[in-house]
Amino acid sequence: MADSSHGPASFWTQADALLRKNLTYQKRNIKTNIRLISFPFILCLLLVLIQALVNNELDKPKNKCGCRTFDQNGDGREEKVCGLEYSDLDQGSYCAIDSPPEWPPLLQVPAQVYRAVASDVMPFADLPNESCRRTGSCPVTLLFTGNNHTLGDIMVENMFTSSANSSDVLVGIARNVSGSHSMPEYTNFLDPAFYSGLPLYNLQRQCTQNSTYSVSVPVMTFERQQEIICVEGVPLWRNSSADVNNELYKGYRKGNTERKINEILAAYDFLNTNANNFNVSVWYNSTFKNDTGNQAIALLRVPRSVNLASNAYLQFLKGPGTKIQFDFVKEMPKAQSSLKLDFSSLLGTLFFTWVVIQLFPVVLTSLVYEKQQRLRIMMKMHGLGDGPYWLISYAYFLVVSMIYMLCFVIFGSVVGLKFFTLNDYSIQFVFYFIYINLQISLAFLAAAMFFNVKTATVVGYICVFGTGLLGGFLFQFFVEDTSFPRAWIIVMELYPGFALYRGLYEFAQYSYNGNYLGTDGMRWKNLSDGENGMKDVFIIMVVEWLLVLFVAYYVDKIASSGKRPLFFLQSLRKKKGSSFKVPSLRKQGSLKVTVEMDKLDVVQEREKVEQIILEQDKQNAIVCDNLRKVYPGRDGNPDKLAVKGLSLALPRGECFGMLGPNGAGKTSFINMMIGLTKPSSGTAYVQDLDIQTHMEEIYTSMGAVEESLKSVNLFNGGVADKQAGKYSGGMKRRLSVAISLIGDPKVVYMDEPSTGLDPASRNSLWNVMKKAKKERAIILTTHSMEEAEVLCDRLGIFVDGGLQCIGNPKELKARYGGSYVFTMTTSSTHEQEVETLVRRLSPNASKIYHLSGTQKFELPKHEVRIADVFQSVQTAKSRFTVFAWGLADTTLEDVFIKVARGAQAFNVLS
Q: Where exactly are the transmembrane stretches of this chain (predicted)?
């Protein structure tokens, strides 16, 4: 609220009023809020239900350590005994293992179809020909480089040994250079190379005819036949580590791609190795990490590659008889375990993205609703500044979002979802707090682009579901592909939806691994991990939050106040109050064309406006200077000229009435004056302030009844609350006028304020408006001629966007109503005598109505005296029967009809 005598209300008064409005709105939408809060609650319960069904399926004998029931002590009582010896291969991984078995260390050997061959991608002449893939005879390739080529040849030669025999099958496999192309597991309790049914490879420099054979390998309590195939190993020299890295990268398997893959067994850079120094870098194939990206290097069959290099160097120093034997690898003992899958972590990233981001359309539609219903402008008219609006609106949405997210996390934790319970709550709080701030800022920025709630709602929910689906089926694959450039991941995370998805993805991965391995989820120390993307997400979201908030405020400042983009520079060049601009020569020159077409009173009003602007006269409350509004044509229709170069000066204490048929441009004029639409050309000044650049200051001295009616839900007979709902129609209109006068505004716009009221209520309303005219300017639009005569000091009649005439009611009736209306009703046999009587009174009289003995004539005032009319009628009564007669002066309604018809006829002809 604003008081022109005491200045605008304080910041906190405005903030308190806006907060009360928001709380009232929240109270009215309690059912919507309940539905909003219930969405994450139902989703969490759904995940719990899925988890229960999955746990029921997992809690079956096939997913437990094997058991057998028998009389263990010979006392006749059978007992259930579980252990590794009673389990099959599937059950064995869940058993307690006090003494884990020993397994030969193996190499990760590429499968036959993936072994490196010469191709257009890798045009190296020393690689095997591609035809070996068709015959199944491709060797495996090992790359090496370093500062000393000769030393490198010696080292590689020492890596390959001839086949070693042993009575112990597993020891024999360990003594040879053996490998497998099976996928490694989380643990080495049971290496899949020995129970997957895939062959083992024995790497040698040259394979003989009898180099493929089968052996019996003990696996738990079983004996399995294991096929062992000799594979030729081909070491290839490269000139630099860059060449090695390039070749490895080109042949790397990217996910489950079907392109040609050229995998290398391993690569070695011996660097500056010599007789006194051993320095080597080992490349290994990391394709075989599990989906979580946390597979230990030891389980990737890397130790055997390191052992080969160390053993080769020892033989280089001490001779071939000296070796470092690498006999076996084994796991640590473990307790009995069970299969555990956390579906909140498996599905949570996608589902919870939808849960969090659905707040975006909620905030967006609320902001667009205020714009569409013009609530923001109405509040600014009553003194609300941008500072309190942004503070309270932002804080309001932030509190609502925080309550929503708090309920979300609490629901998930109470029902036991590991996604919430395993990860550090402080990290979750920081993450959600930053993101909802970013999301609110984005909603404020996006609201500037929409003017319709339905459109904003559709676009908002497309963003919700589109972000989740793109994140789950596109972005996540890039994140999990270790070959995808990290820089591009960060670029994609600049889209806030993907940043949200990445953060939730990290929570899901840590909670999934924590649940599976029995460890904690994400902790603050984990943010420094190389593969953890949460730190990048935090930085991106904080920077975007501050940047988007600033841009949103700047755009809102321009959109809501009509300021130019560089408004802050203009404020430095000129003072706030001096808004009048001297008319340009172009405008003065075009006045001659307009003078010929406009009526004299309209021309005089334009000249008056020009003089006011030239003299910088600040006595008028409203000055319109050639104000024009054109709406662009659509669907092939021409442009609509709504307001045609209106010039008008309105002093304080005057009520100006705007008359005109529907579509004349009255509402368009008021919309420009109150800032709802911008003029196409020209401008207007309210309290010496330009509506193009100083709308915010103008709002402090202005009221608008129609907007006040809508703001309190009183428009078209609505009610704002129970107390106002008890008012009669007249009381509601009076309440609206009272609202428009809050803060003692100096300019008030009233758009048909008495429409639909009974005579008593209308008269009561007029009394209120008469009192309100003092010391303020009022512009009134109405279709009631009686209301215009009672309230208005001057009237202007508008037709097709143009001002046709202007003056007080008496002047207009005198100017356009220069005739009397004479009516007489007789029998049809005396109609000619009546017409003869009229012609004697006024030779230039015109008949305007004739029906069943009733005739109506217009008599020019300069040709007739009222006394002569009475005398002629009295004489006529003595000759024939006169049923009724009357003589009336021209009314304002007659003037309106005459001017409107004349202007419309002229426009049609022109």
A: 36-54, 346-369, 389-417, 429-451, 458-479, 537-555
Query: DSSP per residue over 401-468, as a string?
Result: HHHHHHHHHHHHHHTT-HHHHTS-HHHHHHHHHHHHHHHHHHHHHHHTT---HHHHHHHHHHHHHHHH
Provide the 3-class DSSP secondary structure of residue 580.
coil
Confidence of residue 769 (pLDDT cuts 50, 70, 90): confident
User: 34 vs 31, 319, 515, 555, 833, CA distance in Å?
Assistant: 5, 80, 32, 33, 82
Whole-number Å distance between alpha carbons of 806 and 529: 79
Whole-angstrom distance, CA of residue 178 vs CA of residue 229: 9
pLDDT higher than 60, residue 486: yes
DSSP 8-state secondary structure symbol assigned to residue 205: S
Distance CA 642, CA 640 (A): 6
Instruction: Compute φ and ψ for 842, nearest 5 degrees.
Output: -150, 105
Reported as type and span, the H/E element at residue 689 is: strand 689-690
Question: Do 769 and 750 touch, CB atoms closer than 8 A?
Answer: yes
Candidates 315, 283, 411, 307; CA nearest to 355 is: 411
Backbone phi, then psi, for 685, in 5-degree steps? Answer: -125, 130
Q: Which CATH architecture has domain 818-889?
A: 2-Layer Sandwich (3.30)
The amino acid present at 237, given as its one-letter code, is W
CA 766 to CA 783: how far, in whole Å?
15
Residue limits of CATH 3.40.50.300 in the chain: 585-809
Total-model pTM:
0.61
Q: Are 383 and 699 in contact, with CB atoms under 8 Å apart?
A: yes
Tokens representing 261 are 């893959």
Interatomic CA distance for residues 686 and 702, integer angstroms: 9
Per-residue pLDDT tens over the stretch 80-137? 888 777 887 777 777 888 888 888 899 999 988 888 898 877 777 889 888 888 888 8
Segments of the chain assigned to CATH 3.30.70.100: 818-889
Q: Does domain 585-809 have CATH number 3.40.640.10?
A: no
Determine the distance from the C-alpha atom of residue 826 to the mean position of all C-alpha atoms in its chain, rounded to a whole number. 76
Look at residue 271 and give its three-state secondary structure. Answer: coil
Question: Which residues sit opposite 778 in a β-bridge?
Answer: 655, 748
Counting other chains too, the contacts that 904-908 makes at CB distance below 8 Å and 24 or more residues apart are: 904/799, 904/800, 907/799, 907/800
Quote the distance between the C-alpha of residue 134 and its chain's center: 54
The CA distance from 799 to 899, in Å, is 8
- Tokens (6 digits) for 467: 């972000």
What count of Cα atoms within 13 Å lies in the side-chain half-sphere of residue 524? Answer: 5
Contact present, 133 and 283 (Cβ < 8 Å):
no
Of residues 827, 835, 838, 826, the one with CA closest to residue 885: 826
